[in-house]
Each structure stands twice: as structure tokens, then as C-alpha cells.
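In response to the reviewer comment on reproducibility (Comment 2.3), we provide here a single inverse folding case reported in full, input and output, so that an independent group could reproduce the run without further information from us. The C-alpha cells appear first.
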């Protein structure tokens, strides 16, 4: 579905949508979304899981639990 078609469903044309975009930026001093050029944390985790890139391995369930419930080091 195109942008125009989605806007039409909302009862807004392209010109009005563009004006709304600029008004939002003017009123709030920021974009109405967070721009990104990289992968989100979830996308990165899914990629790593699909490509078998794991952070580490555990020799026992106890070792896993200890790591799981320990405070983050970051």
C-alpha cells in the first residue's frame, strides 16, 4: 500500500501530512520518530540467533542461572 493510500484512509492528503510533520517539528523541537541507520537491539539479537552467534556457552544449568540472575556489568 502506498503512502498516499494510507493517508487517504486517514482522511489526509500529502500536503496536509507534510504540513503536520513540519508543525510537529516546530512545536516539539524534534522529529515525530527516532531515526536510525542501524539495527534495533531486537533485530540484532534475531540476526545473531539465526547465524548462531551466541554471547557464550554454559557447561551447566547452574552456571547459566548464575549468569542470568547476576547484575548487569554495563
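Designed residues, in position order:
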Amino acid at each position: 500500500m502506498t503512502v498516499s493510500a494510507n493517508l487517504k484512509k486517514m482522511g489526509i492528503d500529502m500536503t496536509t501530512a507534510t504540513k503536520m510533520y513540519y508543525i510537529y517539528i516546530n512545536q516539539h523541537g524534534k522529529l515525530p520518530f527516532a531515526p536510525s541507520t542501524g539495527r534495533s537491539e531486537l533485530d540484532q539479537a534475531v540476526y545473531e540467533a539465526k547465524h548462531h552467534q551466541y554471547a557464550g556457552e554454559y557447561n551447566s544449568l547452574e552456571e547459566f542461572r548464575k549468569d542470568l540472575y547476576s547484575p548487569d556489568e554495563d
